[in-house]
Amino acid sequence: MVTKSRVRRTRERYNKREAVAGYLFILPWIAGFLIFTAGAMIYSLRSRQDSPACGSLGWAGS
């Protein structure tokens, strides 16, 4: 005879396994986003801080 607590533990274990599988499935997308999108945005903002803000701009045409 299967008790309710045993069924509940089995269901909780299954739900936890499903959650871990979901996180592992989406992990490559999150890593790619952080490296290629957010990382590039942060790098570009940081490199902007090193340059003077429009102080040395001049006419480049003829």
Automatic annotation (TrEMBL):
TM regions (residue ranges): 20-43
Superkingdom of origin organism: Bacteria
Keywords associated with the record: Membrane, Sugar transport, Transmembrane, Transmembrane helix, Transport
Name of this protein: ABC-type sugar transport system permease subunit
Organism annotation: Microbacterium ginsengiterrae
